[in-house]
Amino acid sequence: MRLYRPLLPLLLSASLLPAWAATGPALVYTGGDFIAEQQNAQIHKQAVTLFTQMSGVSVKEITPVGAADRLTQLRQLASDGYSPIVVIGNTQLPTLQQVASEFPQAKFTLIDGQLALPNVQSVQFNKQEAAFLVGALAAMVSETGLLGFVGGMDLPAIHKSGCGFAQGARYANPSVQVSEQYVTSTLDLAFNDPKKGAFTAKQLIDEGVDVLFADAHGTGLGVYQAAADASVRAIGATFQQADLHPGTMLTAIYQNVPKAVLTSLTQAQAGQWQAGNRQLGLAEDYVGWVDDQSNAGQIRPAHYRILTQLQQDIVDGKLQVHDFSLTGSCLFPQVAGGLCQVSESGEAGHCQG
User: Fold this and answer.
1) pTM for this one?
2) Which residues constitute the signal peptide according to the record (predicted)?
3) Edge-to-edge, what's the strand order for the sheet holding 276-280?
């Protein structure tokens, strides 16, 4: 397990100052919900502020409101000569595709998405690896053997979480069932509709699901509320929300977005920025699962030991977690059996045959 911690300072040399565009780098946040606000504050503190303190270079920060404003703001930044322009979130991909094509000399970094253009650096997180671990946890704590995944939208980036979760659950217990639901097909509503999230979660709970995992940003808040109301367990994504519903939230997966932003900015300053796709996961501490004071006591010691071993197996390459985005389908690891249920003594092991 890797706890989500502030980034360690990076050593920057004044001799590495780049030939910035006259106006320097810029950052385009995603907005619209409570989760996004939390993430933006974390990025500002752990990436932007730290970068400016170390380099003396200021970063232009904007938070567009809606699709039209995203297009206007991003186009203005590129027109004004900002570069690199770091864009947060897969929801901004359509806008970025248009603007990056219009301004081929500008450098853009897309965090948590992929865009194949010669002036775009795409940073993608192997969140299926972290989702695998919490899927195994969900299967071990479930009493009904019925688990649920709620995604904000039917997108490959969201399917990565759902597929990873299902793989981990079936690895732990081959007989477990995982129901997947996607809230909407409208991009701007998919991740900012708690009411629809709650409605979707209640449907799954009525079917007997007793552990819910949501990858839906603000929509997920409704999922967690529904879980708390029904006294079932929930697992978050992006941030840990245990302080909202103590006793309900088992854990959460995280993506180390601040680290990705800081890395892109420092690479550009050192003249090392490159276009192309970067895949970052457990091994690089860009994804992980939460076990800290926010969910203290929620993960049993035996489960903790199993998860840390599974994580090491993934990092070492002994356990391969399939990435849905590579094939458009979910494949499952071949295993001899599942993880044994934890005994009264707290011991657990891998079941054979």
Assistant:
1) 0.84
2) 1-21
3) 60-62, 26-28, 85-88, 108-111, 120-125, 276-280
CATH number of this structure's domain 21-125+257-284: 3.40.50.2300
Q: Where in the chain is the domain with CATH 3.40.50.2300?
A: 21-125+257-284, 131-255+300-327
